[in-house]
Amino acid sequence: MYQRDLIEDLGYSNKTIIEHLKALVDLGILGAYGENRVFWEGGLA
Fold this sequence. Notes:
The protein is of the alpha+beta class.
């Protein structure tokens, strides 16, 4: 699934989704590595 598909399906702006992902990383629910990759703590999302 591509980012644009998620945005269309969820009805949120790209900025909103990015901010929510950052919050999940800060809470330790998601992990981040590299520059643009986010993964669930159990593996790649």
